[in-house]
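Quick one: structure for this chain?
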Amino acid sequence: MYNKKNLIQAINKAAKSLVNIFPYFIGIVLLMSIINVSVPRSFYSHIFTKNPILDPLIGAAIGSISAGNPIISYIISGELLHQGVSLTAVTAFVLSWVSVGVIQMPAECAILGKKFAIYRNILSFIFAIIIAVIIGAILG
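Got it. Here's what it folds into:
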């Protein structure tokens, strides 16, 4: 079944990993909070051009930098849609907001490896744009 010694070793390793990762998480939360507070929500509605090619790129780029949690992105998305921002741009914004993490990149590199973090973020950015265009074409 299981060995009590191995279980205690595994718990100790996990605890040490959490202690080592904790400063990264604090830094990420503080940086995300500063960005979310310092960038007014009205800023987003002014930068979209209503261009079907440019808007998903702008949305994905802003979402990548503005990283946050999904609940807040739904609120911001509703506001953006009410202010006339295209569904394609909002979709790219939300997908990259949740899946691309420029702010979290240093912590992700330290924890998961630089190569993996870079590839994951690039692919997430590209797929956010592709999915946004597909959603825009289907629902728009």
